[in-house]
Amino acid sequence: MLPTVLEEALAPYLDGPLRHCMPVGGGCIAHASRIETDTSRYFLKWAKHPIGDAFLAEADGLDLLRAAGSSLVIPQVLAVKAPDPIVPGFLLLEWIDSGGMTDAFWEKLGGGLAALHRNLADSYGADADNFIGQLPQHNTRTERWPDFFRNCRLEPQVKLARERNLWQASWDKPLDILYNRLDDLLPERPEASLLHGDLWSGNIMVTSAGMAALIDPAAYYGHRETDLAMSELFGGFQRRFYSAYNEAWPLDPAYSDRRDVYNLYHLLNHLNHFGPGYAGSVVSILRRFAR
């Protein structure tokens, strides 16, 4: 059941009295529930400070993706509130019934993501910072992509790893070499595409109508290859997804050379979230690009 103060805060946004509340998957960080009135169903995430602090930024990201006009289904934000000392923060979304992941789904996801990436900006970043998981994600507007990736992606995670005693002194030299090579490894001014920002299998779903949907974004404008790289980090998506994406907007042949640089950001984020189990993957990438 929901806390009484949360039920009271939700009441103005529902189309009737709340009748049922059932926990659902996806609540590894925040609580996640399906709530029902007599006539409607909703998806609800809720949490106290500090986890609930991320809901406003998540709502902004969903609104940004939804406004992009791609074929991807993005759940509509119905209400959002930051936590206060009495009421937990919450994010109320439309409920989306799920279906099975067919070959057609993967093709729709690939083509839809390419269309999403066609939404371009004049610089990298976003108008506000947001979150990657539970951790802050810096989105300071930047003109050069290598500068943005170093200053807003890698360096904040490295700094946090140092503060948490997860960084090893032997990583300093390879990191410096990687930083010095970024101008050669990364394009200076690729298209600044609208990105999901955290594109792994847990953040995609198929609707009951077979459409591809995206949830839990960490949205900003950046090099589109970063979304593709993240999709490959933990086992990858089906080949039909990558084929459909490349048919809609072919990737540069050098993408495979940059993929691990981009995924270093997410591995550092996992190191900071979950601890030294990710240290081996981090150092492997650092050493590869320090040669």
Structure notes:
The chain contains nine helices and twelve strands. It is of the alpha+beta class and 291 residues long. The protein has two domains: 4-94, Phosphorylase Kinase, domain 1 (2-Layer Sandwich); 103-289, Aminoglycoside phosphotransferase (APH), C-terminal lobe (Aminoglycoside 3'-phosphotransferase, Chain: A, domain 2), CATH 3.90.1200.10. The strands form four sheets. A five-stranded antiparallel beta sheet has the order 1-2-3-5-4, covered by helices on one side. A hairpin with a 7-residue loop joins strand 1 and strand 2 (31-36). Helix 3 packs parallel to helix 7, helix 4 (145-163) packs parallel to helix 8 and helix 8 packs antiparallel against helix 9 (279-289). It starts with a helix and ends with a helix. The relative contact order is 0.14.
Keywords:
40% helix; Phosphorylase Kinase, domain 1; 3-stranded antiparallel beta sheet; 17% strand; alpha+beta; globular; Aminoglycoside 3'-phosphotransferase, Chain: A, domain 2; 291 residues
The pLDDT mean sits at: 96
Number of strands: 12
Task: Please provide the ordered H/E string of secondary-structure elements.
Answer: HEEEHEEHEEEHHEEEEHHHH
Q: Widest sheet: strand order?
A: 1-2-3-5-4
Low-confidence stretches: none
Distinct helical segment count:
9
Could you state the CATH homologous superfamily of the largest domain? Answer: Aminoglycoside phosphotransferase (APH), C-terminal lobe
Q: What kind of sheet is the major sheet?
A: 5 strands, antiparallel
CATH architecture of the largest domain: Alpha-Beta Complex
Q: What is the CA-CA span between the terminal residues?
A: 55 Å
The helical percent reads 40-55%
Q: Helix/strand-derived class? A: alpha+beta
What do we call the CATH topology of the largest domain?
Answer: Aminoglycoside 3'-phosphotransferase, Chain: A, domain 2
Percent strand equals: 15-25%
Instruction: Categorize the overall geometry.
Output: globular
Supply the CATH class of the largest domain: Alpha Beta
